[in-house]
Amino acid sequence: MRAGPAPGKLISMERGLYAYHREAPLEEQHGRLRGHIIIVCLMLLAIWTVKMAETWWDASFTHFGMFPRDWKHLYGIVTMPFLHKDFGHLYANSFGVFVLTMALFQFYEKVAWRVILHSVLWGGVMVWIIARPAYHIGASGLIYSLTAFLFLSGILRRDRASVGVMLIVAFLYGGAIWGVFPIHPGISWEGHLCGAIVGCLLAVRYRRVDPPPRDESEDEDEVDVRIDPDEVDDVYQDSYARVDEDDDDHFRDQMYRRGYR
User: Fold this and answer.
1) Which CATH superfamily is domain 7-205 in?
2) What is the number of helices (H) and of strands (E) in the chain?
C-alpha cells in the first residue's frame, strides 16, 4: 500500500482549504458591497447636486421637467428623476433610492442597471403619454418601479433571499400603494402608477435571470469522503475471500445432506 500523508499534515491542509473557501467569498462580498454603495452614493450625489445648484443660484429647474405630450419637453423623461420640488421631497426620495437601489444591486446584480434604465425610460414614456398637462418631476416613479420589481420578484422566484427582500419592501413601502391613486393634489400619481406597472413587467421579464446562489447550509451538510485506492483494493479482496468461504461452506453442506461425506 502507498503511504499517505501524515494525519496532522492532512488535517492542516484541509483546514487551509476550508479557510480559503470560506474567507474568499466573504472578501468578495465585502468588495461588491463597497462597490454598490459607491454607485448608489454617486447617483444620490447627482440628484443632490442639481438641488444644491438651484439653491446656489436661487433658481428653479422645474421647467426642465417632463411636460406630457409636449415634444419640446421630451427630454424630461431623462431629467425628471433628478429634479425635486424642495428639500423635503428630496429627503424622502433619497432614502427610497438608497434602500431600494442597494437591494437591487445586492440581490439582482446582473439586471440592476437594466432595471434602472428601463424604469426611467419606459416609465417616463408612459407618463408623457397619459399624464395630466403639468410639469412632472421627482424620482418617485423610479422608486415605485423598484418597489414593484423587488416585491413581485420575491413572489415569482420564491427563493430565500428574494422572499426576504420582498418582506422588507412590503414592510417599508406597503403603504405606498395608495400613491398610485389620485388622492392628493399636486402629486404625480401617474408617475407612481406608471413606475409600478413598469416594475411589474420587468420582474416578469427578468424572473429567470440572475438565479439565487446555492445555499451554504447545503454545503455544510455534505461530507467529504476521501478513499485511498489501495484501501479499496483491500476491501474488495476481503469481500471476495468472504464470498469464497461462504460458497465452500454451502457446497459442503449440500454434499453432507446428499450423503456424500
Assistant:
1) Rhomboid-like (1.20.1540.10)
2) 9, 0
State whether residue 66 is helix, strand or coil. strand
CA distance 79 to 74: 9
**Eight-class DSSP state of 85:** S
Name the residue among 208, 211, 209, 40 with its Cα closest to residue 116: 40
Nearest to 152 by CA among 98, 198, 106, 214: 198
**How many beta carbons lie within 10 A of that of residue 13, not counting itself?**
11
84-98, 121-135, 167-181, 218-232, range with the lowest pLDDT: 218-232
How do the residues of the chain divide into helix, strand and coil, expressed in percent and rounded to 5? Answer: 75, 0, 25
- The model's pLDDT over 10-27, given as tens digits with 9 standing for 90+, comes to 444 444 433 433 444 777
Q: Where are the domains of the chain?
A: 7-205, 228-261
